[in-house]
Design a protein that fits this description.
- The chain has about 250 residues and is mainly beta.
- The protein has one domain (about 25-250).
- It is built from two helices and 17 strands.
- Strands 3, 4, 5, 7, 11, 13, 14, 15 and 17 form a nine-stranded antiparallel β-sheet that branches.
Length: about 250
Amino acid sequence: MQRILTLLVLASAASLGLAGNASAATYGSYTDPTGSVSYLNVSDVNGLFGAPSVSLDSLDFTPTTFQASCTQCTATTSDTLSLDIAAVSGKKLAQIEITEGLDYALQSFDPSGQATVSVTATLTIGVVELDGVAVSGISSNVSVLFSPSGTLSIIGFGINPPNSVILGTSGVIDIDAIVAAAGRIGDATRLNVQFGNVLTASHDGSGGLALIRKRDADFVSLTVDAIARTPEPSTGILILGGLGVLAGRRRRN
C-alpha cells in the first residue's frame, strides 16, 4: 500500500470520465522460486489491473489507469481479475487475504452541488483441487470491507482533505472452512480467484470534481505443510479390526 499517491487536482479540471484501455489482458503466470505458491493464468477483462509482480507468496498489482473521474456528469469504470493459485508439492493452501487501496478527490464549488465517489468489490474463492485432484462445486463469495466507507460524498461548497485514501480488505480467509462448508474432505492445493471492482464518480453543480482511482491490489497466500487426512470411518474400522486380529493371535501364541 506504500505506493498510494497523493492527489493533486486542479479546481479548474475539465469534465472527464476515464475508463482506461477497455480490452482484455493476459498477464501469464508468476512464481517466486523461494515461495510456496504459483500464481497461474493471471488475466483481466478490461486490462486495467496491469501486469503484477511477485515476491515470496505475495502477488502485487499497481494499476495506473483504473479510475473514474467526472465534472458535471457520472462516470463508471469496472474490471474483473481472474487467476489460479497453486501450492507447491508437499504444501496446502490454508489461508488467503486480499487487500486493495484507492485514492479519491471530492471538490464542489457550488453551494447546491454534490460530489460523490464509490467503490464496490466482488470476490469469489473457488477450490478447484483437493490433494492434487481436480474437483468442482466448492466456492465461497467473500465480502470486502472498506475503510472509510466505500461511498463518500460532499454537498455544497467543500474540498476533501489531502491524502484521501480508501482501504479495502477481505480479512484472512480460511480455505479449510470453505472446504468443510461444502461437505468435502481434503487439503486445498489449487484455488481460482475472481476479483472485481466497480468505481463510480458523480458530480453536479457549476464547478469541482469527483475522482476515484485504484492504486494497489495485493493477493497474499499463506501456506502450511500438508496435513495428513483423517481416515474415513470405514477405513478406521478396518484398521481397528486388523489390530484386534493381531492381538488375538499373540494371545494364542
